[in-house]
Amino acid sequence: MLLTGLLILFFFAILILGHEFGHFIAAKKAGFEVEEFGFGLPPRIFGKKIKGTIYSINAIPFGGFVKVKGLVPGEGEDMHRLPPAWKRLVVFVAGIFMNFLIAWVAFSIIFLIGIKQTVYVEAVLPGSPAAAAGIKSYDSVRDFETIKELTEYIGRNPDKEISLNLSREGKDITARVTPRIDETGKAKIGVALQEGGIEKQPFFSAIGEGFMRTTETVSYIIQALIHMFTSVDFSGASGPVAVFRAVSVAESMGAVYFLQLLAVVSVNLFVINFLPFPALDGGHLLFLAIEKIQKRPLSQKVVGIINTLGFFILLALMFLATAKDVVNLIKK
Asked: CATH for 115-198?
C-alpha cells in the first residue's frame, strides 16, 4: 500500500509539476516576475528565495503550483499596464503543451522498450463456456502470442476441459473451460479475441512513433468528448478514484503499463485544459480573446467571480465522478 501510495504521488507529480514547469519556464523567458514555484500545495513547510523567486516545499504532497505576477488581473493593479496579451498567451499555452510533451516522451519510451505480443479477451459471449469459467473482457492469455495459436489449441480439445493461464489487473489466474462444438462444427469457448503488443523500435523511429501515437490519442479523446457532450452521455467519464485504481493496477503490471497510463492521462489533461472553461487554462485563453475584442482586460473582480464559480463547478463534477467511481468499485 505504501509503494502504491508513493507511486500515485509520483504519477501526479509528473503530470501536475510538469504542467506548472511549462508555465514557469515560459514566464521566466517572457520576462514575468515569478513569485513562487511550489512543490505540493500550501501550507508551506520550507521556502528559499533565489533570484526573486521563492522555491517552496508544501505540506500537501499533491502536484505543485506557480505564482506569476501580471499573468491575470490582480487587486489594485493598473489594468492598462499588464504585459502584452501574446506574452500571457504563451505562458498559458506552455503549461498545456507540457502535458503533450510528457505523453510524447512516455509513448516514445514504450516504443523503445517494446511490449510483448499478447492475446487479449475483447468480449465474452453471455452463456458461453468462457462466461461459465469466469473469463472476463480485458483478460490476457499468457501462454499464447497469437490468436491462431490459441484457437488451434481450443479446436483440438472439443468437449474436453482445458486450463487457460490468464492475467487480470496484474494478477495471474487459471480458468478451466470446456470448448463446445458450435453450428459450424468447430470447438469454441465464446470469446472475441484481440492481439496486442508493440515491436521494439530504434531511437529515432521510437520518437516518431511516440509523436504519432500521442496525436492519435488526442484525436480519440476529442472525438470522445464531442460524443459525450452531444449525446449527453457521461457514463464513460471517470474521476480520481478510477485513476488511483488504474495506477495501482499499472504498478502490479510493470513499468510499460505505468508509462502507458501516464501518457493517456497526460493527453487527457492536454485536451481538457484547452476547453474554454473558467479555472482551466482554456478559460484564461478565453479571457485573453475577450480582452483583444473589447480592447481592454476584464476586471480583476469579474475574473475572480467567474473563476470562483468555475472552480466550484469543477469540484462538483469531481465529486460526482468520484461518487460514480466508488459505486462502480462497490458493484465489483
From this structure: 2.30.42.10
DSSP H or E stretch at residue 196: strand 191-198
Question: Global pTM?
Answer: 0.78
The angle formed by the CA atoms of residues 239, 23 and 292, to the nearest 5 degrees, is 100
Distance (Å) of CA 276 to CA 24, 72, 167, 282: 21, 16, 41, 4
Of 79-83, 101-105, 115-119, least confident by mean pLDDT is: 79-83
Distance CA 158, CA 286 (A): 63
Give 272-276's long-range contacts (Cβ < 8 A, gap of 24+).
273/19, 273/95, 273/96, 273/99, 274/96
Average pLDDT in the 129-138 region? 89
Cβ atoms of 247 and 258 within 8 Å: the answer is yes
pLDDT average, residue stretch 203-223: 93
Domain boundaries, the chain: 96-113+207-331, 115-198
Cβ-contact 85, 288 below 8 angstroms? yes
Total number of residues shown for the chain:
332
DSSP 80: G
| For residue 55, pLDDT beyond 90 | yes
Q: Which of 14-23, 267-276, 306-315 has the lowest mean pLDDT?
A: 306-315
Residue at grid coordinates 487459471: 174
- Model pLDDT, residue 237: 63
The yes-or-no verdict on residue 295 having pLDDT over 60 is yes
The per-residue DSSP string of 230-266 comes to HTT--TT---HHHHHHHHHHHHHH-HHHHHHHHHHHH
Report d(CA 320, CA 172) in Å as an integer: 33
3-state SS, 145-175, equals: CCHHHHHHHHHCCCCCCEEEEEEECCEEEEE
